[in-house]
Amino acid sequence: MEEDTSLSPEDELLDNAPLLEDERDELEDPEFDVESPPQEAELGACPAPCCSVKQPNTDADKTKKKAAVEDRARTFHLRKNLSYLDKTQEEKDLFIQKTREELRACRQRMELIHTQQASMAAAIASEREAGNAAAVGRLQAAARRLCTELENERDLQAKITVLLAESENTMWHVELQQGQLEDFRKSNREEAEAAERYLQVHAAQQLRREKAAVEKAERNQRLRMRKSLLIQQGHGLGQRKLAEDAQKNHRTAVKFLKASLGRIREREKEEEAVSRQHTRRRMDAVLALKSSIAANRETLRKFQAWSRAKGQLAERRAQAEKEAILAQGGNTFKHLFHQCRHQELEAQTRAFEEEQRLRKQEIVGRILKEEAEERNRKKRLPPSTATGRWTLRDKTWSYVSAFCEGKTTAPATSYLPEDGVEPPEPSGLLRAVSIESVHGDLGINLEEQTLAEPEISGLWNEDHKLYQVPKEDVDRKPVGGTKMDKDILARTMERLRTGLVHRQVASGHEFKGRPFNSKPEMIHFKDFDVGKVYKKKITLINATYTINYCKLVGVEEHLRDFIRADFDPPGPMSAGMSCEVLITFKPMINKDLEGNVSFLAQTGGFSVPLKCSTKKCSLSLDKELIDFGSHVVGETASRTITLTNVGGLGTEFRFLPALETCETDDSRSLLRMSSLFTYEDKSLYEKTLTSFSEHQLEGYESSHVDVHSRKESEKLDNRDPEEAQPAEPERLTAMMPSVEEPVEITLGGVTEGALGPFSSVKVPIIFAPTIPGEVQTRFKVTFKTPQCPTLYFRATGVAVDVSVWVPKPSVDLKICMYDRLYQASVLVHTRSNAALRLKFEVCKELRGHMELLPETGYIQARSSYSVQLKFLPRHSLPEDAGKYFDKDSRVLEAPMTIWVADQTKPVGFTVHAVVTTSDLEISPAELDFGCCTIYEAVRTEVSLRNHSLLPQDFGFVRLPKCVDIQPGDGFGTILPLETLQFDVIFQPTKAKEYSFELVCKSEINRCFKLSCRAVGVHPPLELSHHQIKFAATALYDTSVATVYVINSHLSMNSLTHSVPRIGSEDASPVGPTSFEFLLPPDSPITIAPSVGTVLPGKRCLVQVAFRPVLPEELIRQEALQTLNKELETKPFGKDTATQRRDLCRLSLSTLRLHNRDQPLQVSTHPSLELQEQQLKASSDRYQAAQASLARAFRGKFDKFVVPCVIASGDTKDRKGSEPLSFSPHNTLYLELWCPTVAPSVVVTSGKGKTVFDFGDVAVGHSDMKKVSIQNISPEDLALKFSVLDPSGPFVLLNPCGRLHTGETKLLVLSFSPRESVPAQEMLDIVTKRGTLTLTLMGSGVASVTTCSIEGDVLNMGYVIARESVSSGFKLQNNSSLPVKFCVQLDSLCSRSAEAQQQLPQFLASPAQRTQVVGTQNFSGQSVFSVAPVQGIMEPGKTQDFTVTFSPDHESLYFSDRLRVVLFKKTVSHQILLKGAAREHMMFVEGGDPLDVPVESLTVVPALDPEHREGDSQPGPPSPDVEELRPILVTLDYIQFDTDTPAPPATRELQVGCIRTTQLSPKKTVEFSLDSISSLQHKGFCIEPSRGSVERGQTKTISISWVPPADFDPDHPLMVSALLQLRGDVKETYKVIFVAQVVTGH
To answer: In Å, what is the CA distance from 374 to each residue of 377, 397, 429?
Structure first.
């Protein structure tokens, strides 16, 4: 028996454990040391000397530490083995119990089968006796089936028995190993108990310490409480005192608050009174303006009529003159042409003269202005600067005066007087002149002659010697150095300052900007006095990120004489810290100064602006227009105007009337107008001036300052007289009054005086009208200070001189409606000293619509009278009013007349009103809701339009119960000309036909009706819910809701309950009713089942799922945009192999199309269109775009209405695909609210893909993928994972429980297929905000290989000992993966521990022999060998294997098992190798086995020369010695009970000749069997009895036996015969024939 080289389970555990060095590294980890029990608990108490003695040798300490670590590692290893053995024992114990239960059940089944066989045999016998052949055949088949089952159970029993024995053997080994580790278990238990005792002692000590600490803390707490009570008492006294003080202060504050509130209320009342007064004045001014405009329009109409009449008169004169010329025989055309030309020349001449005069006046004005400035300048200069020489201004004066007096133009030199002669005074006509305008008019060339002279005579002479600087002054350098030195110094300082600046970076951010902020931002010294000293402090705050420094650089050079900065550098300043700088200002001159105070910080320089302002005057008027309103002639009214100075410098003021400027502007405008008239229109112009002398310009607001704009307008008027001519009638209405009119608006007593700084003065303006009409006067305010501009303001008033007048000449009734009564009071005043009779008259066109009551009345002296105006507009008003009513604007202007007795001129006033309708229009005029179920509501939009110009309140009243109107329940206010949309909601309560009217009432009780009709439907089915509101669902998540479809129609009795019907039609039948939900296309809604049938009284469960997804088109567009960006970023000229392949795929037609239309698009991105066509939902780019859009999703809300049609009948009853007759009226509707939000958890790895394809993985192997998920929601999320299939191939290795906001975690997924099928599972990551679904895909690919050997047995046959023979077989890889294989022989593999514990095979019974490894070579070499041993088979390829059989001695039981192992795990094929070896070339096989198929360790040949008698010398046996080899042949003759003769019993023997390479005298083997006749006599038949066999061939000897007539069945027949074989030696076999008769069933 060979030596067992396999490993025990303990050895396997040791081999599988990690190395000792690795364990040592793990044990030295601090966490391991902390978790390990104390050394005192593990090793027990150590003697005192052991603890006190210290070895100085560090090597010894290291050795001890290393030994301690090794002991600890060994202990850990033993503990691990012990726990593993305990676990193995429990598993094996449980397995043995289950196996015994299975064995017991198997035996019970076998007993049951035996019982069934007995009963079956009895039944067969009875049926056979009855002659029922069919039943006998059937029962025999059942008996054979029972036999088969019995055999199966026996096989199962044998297997279970073997398995039970193996398990018990394993248990024995486990118990042995546990026994070996029992000592360690006890020591480990003792160590644990010692550790527990140590922990108990330690806990007791810790408890005592904690109790002491608690007591101490309680004492401290009591002390603190006592102290806090004392403090609270002290605080209580303080709080009481504070409360009393607070109450006292509160009473005082309430007293002062009441006084302050009283003053505030009084101030508010005064302001309100002033506001009312101002509003009243503005209203009076507007009314006056309106009346003035009306008067001007009337005057303009008169002038237009007069102009038309004058034009007609001129035409008649021209016609008469033309007729006279024709009568005289002259040329009328020539005469008229000369006349027109003459008029045009005259008009041009007048225009030119007027233009010249205007330009002269402009020059004079400018000269006057310059003269005033020159006088002011001369007053400021010393008297010595004056000279008697002619200046440029004097020469200009002389020229202008000569030109105005009509002198001819002379050379410029003639105007130069001699020295000492004073120039002539300028004429009074001239006011101002400009040098540029004079030169432009006279054409004087400045280059030829100039009038400029020096102020000092002889200054500009050529013989004047310039001042020479003394040499000593030239050589002397200035105090501050030369200019170059200063520049060098400035550049050097700039470089130094630049070097001092450092960048400041904090937290990765570089500071940029102003390093220090100044409070205040600007240093401003206002209203300073020369000689005084002013000081101001500024605060500099560090605005940088970190510490900074600040240094004073100084002030600008022009400020150094006046400004001094005192700054003490504080050193390093943290961010936000501040420092102070004192600025001292000592003014020496009265001048505005501006500059900067410069500082230098570590991060750069900065400056604080500085400004010094002198005292100035800031003057203003509180108003520019004073409107006195209407006053009677003879009365006096007074108003005040306030002049305010908010500056720090006082001045003297003077109020003057601005008459000169007005006259100049007047004459200018009149001259401009006169140039546009012809000679014939001159009289019209003069009459216009005289007629308008009593009127003033209403809107005149131009000032003296706005001269430039008027000049431009004059130039435009001069350039385009034709364009300006149509506007002349309007300009005539805005002319100034005559200068000769009396002044009615004058200034009060205070007209001049001094105005101090920050003060104001009030000046009264008095209006004393003397002539009726409108009066306007313009005033100006001049100041002594030249820098103060002149201020202007206007005062207007209206003087009236009528005895009876209406204060409100226009009665505005606003907007009125037809058929509504409107009233107003008209107040009439009188100035008369006697009572007057008044008669009120309405124009005849409006007498049917308007009335004045009373028609006649008396007004007392100097009093007022009120008349009532009633206005009731009828619908015929537009036709009756005629010209007083504008149909487009709906404006009514009705003139009213008041006749005064003894007065020819009536007093009139106008009634204004906008008349509008009150109609409301409802469209459409009729509503048809159609068919509507009682479970639903139908909504229809109607529009309500307001044709009125007024807002109207409305409401739909007396609505039926089945109707609702929204919004506002049908009530509201509609604005003018507005259209409102309303929803009319109709929901029937029962099945019938509806017809009703909706009434809309307005606020004036007008009714507008809307006709409606509908049909109520009661469907046979109903829904449990008609509206489903899904929770906020994340993208690609699913929300599910449940709804029931109920069939409650059980009876046709309409008296007890309402039956389903459509309107008034017949009721629906009772029975099964089908339904179908019609989903909208491309909706994220799924309904299951969507089609079904509900029986009466039953209900059907329907699940509605909402799974929002992104539109596929949107995802494709995003993917294409990403692809386009990628292509744009790639180099254009780079032609890769992929692009060339894509170009090849393009069709020729596509290339031609692009070459013809867009030749440059093909070369730009040729693969873009291809990739667009190949973009599928499974592509990586598509999934990346989908993830990107899902991450950026902002949420949306969708609402779906799903109809559910109903039909009577069952869906199973329809024929084929014939649809049911669904009625469109019996339709239910399910409303779904679907809010969609962005996913809370997204995948960040793999471009956000949620589909993970593991690809093809071999069965039995595993592949892993890592997935990164991130929480993008604003809150932390708890994660839950769906349960994957426990028996499936997918496993989540590291589930996590919580994911914080913004956190990313890595999930590891494993795919381990167990069978060759595609696998797919969904892993749901569930949070409270949604579910993220990961799709896991993979295909398990079985390593399918096929072997060319059938039956898994390879018999090598017979071979001569010490020779070899080879045989081959093939393996084919039928899988789609490369297969790694290795070939193993059982004889070369180490046997397991179980095989070592079994009995030797030659001692076991034949039923228990499972050893496949047979006889082996004596030399130790393997009998069988195979090549190749390992390799890789590609998919679809075939691998050839060669098996060689090489025995080294004779044996018939050479065997081995060849195993093909794939991937070092799976055994795909087990091939049993068999072979036999002989010393000689012949062999016989067949017969029954007579010995065990296992050899002993020592082989003793049966004819060993040592054991042969009479032979003393060992050697090989002689070929002549006859050797008998027994062969047992058993023949069983089966005897049936029937009369049919049974077939003979047959057996076969094979005689063969081995093919050998050795030289042998004989090439064949001869065989012969003797005693043939005796065998035939006993019933044996042997064919052939002799013969020969060629090499490599076998021959069969057939043996058959039929019992002879005298055969006794109770005694088997046994005979023998000799079989002789002759080859290279002679062999004799004794063939023993044993024959018996067996009874068959």
So the answer is: 5, 13, 19
CB 897 within 8 A of CB 906: yes
Cα 1214 to Cα 1077, 1203, 1218: the distances in Å are: 18, 22, 6
**In which residue are the tokens 């008669």 written?**
839
CB 621, CB 604: distance < 8 Å: no
Asked if residue 736 has pLDDT above 80, the reply is no
Amino acid at 250: H
pLDDT digits (tens, 9 = 90+) for 906-928: 888 999 999 999 999 999 989 99
Which is nearest to 387 in space by CA: 378, 395, 396?
A: 378
Nearest-angstrom CA–CA distance, 1338 and 1253: 6
Q: Say how far residue 503 (Cα) sits from the centre of its chain.
A: 38
**pLDDT per residue over 43-57, tens digit each?**
333 333 333 334 445
Asked if 903 contacts 834 with a C-beta cutoff of 8 angstroms, the reply is no
Point out which residues pair with 839 in neighbouring strands.
856, 899
Q: How far apart are the first and last CA of the chain?
A: 46
Spatial distance between the Cα atoms of 984 and 960, rounded to a whole number of angstroms: 12
Does residue 1108 contact residue 1036 with C-beta atoms inside 8 Å?
yes
For 52, list phi and psi in degrees, rounded to 5: -85, -30
Is residue 440 classed as helix, strand or coil in its secondary structure? helix
Tokens matching residue 684: 């019209």
CA dist 537 and 582 (Å) reads: 5
Task: Express each pLDDT in 1444-1455 by its tens digit.
Answer: 999 988 888 888
The C-alpha atoms of residue 1252 and residue 300 are separated, in whole angstroms, by 92
pLDDT computed for residue 1639 by the predictor: 78
| Distance from C-alpha of 777 to C-alpha of 782, rounded to nearest angstrom | 17
Please name the residue that has the structure tokens 């009529």. Answer: 305
Q: How far is CA 1144 from CA 1124, 1137, 1141, 1157, in A?
A: 21, 11, 5, 20
Residue 879 has pLDDT above 50, yes or no: yes
Report the chain's C-alpha Rg in angstroms. 65
Beta-sheet strands, E only, within 1168-1244: 1196-1208, 1223-1237, 1241-1243
| Angle subtended by helix axes 332-380 and 707-719, to nearest 10 | 160
Q: How many residues does the chain have?
A: 1641
Separation between Cα atoms, residue 632 and residue 327, nearest integer Å: 62
| Residue 428 in tokens | 């009074």
* Element housing 715 (H / E): helix 707-719
Q: Which two tokens stand for residue 254?
A: 């309430």
Specify whether the CB–CB gap between 1377 and 1258 falls below 8 A: yes
Q: 1045 - beta bridge partners?
A: 1023, 1100
CB 1237 within 8 A of CB 1034: yes
pLDDT in tens, 418-476: 333 344 444 333 333 333 333 334 343 433 334 445 544 554 554 444 444 444 444 44
Q: What is the pLDDT of residues 327-357, one digit of tens each?
A: 887 777 778 888 888 888 999 999 999 988 8
Separation in Å, CA 501 to CA 602, 1075, 1286: 5, 85, 70
| Tens-digit pLDDT profile for residues 1398-1436 | 555 555 555 555 567 878 888 888 889 999 989 988 888
Question: How far apart are the C-alpha atoms of 1326 and 1280, rounded to whole Å?
Answer: 5
| pLDDT in the model for residue 662 | 40
DSSP 8-state secondary structure symbol assigned to residue 1220: P
Residues ≥6 apart with Cβ < 8 Å to 445: none
Quote the tokens at residue 1364: 């070899």
Rounded Cα–Cα distance for residues 984 and 932 (Å): 14
User: What are the b/e assignments for 770-786, b being 16+ CB within 10 Å?
Assistant: eeebbbbbbbbbebeee
Beta bridge partners of 1196: 1236
CA 1128 remoteness from chain centre: 26
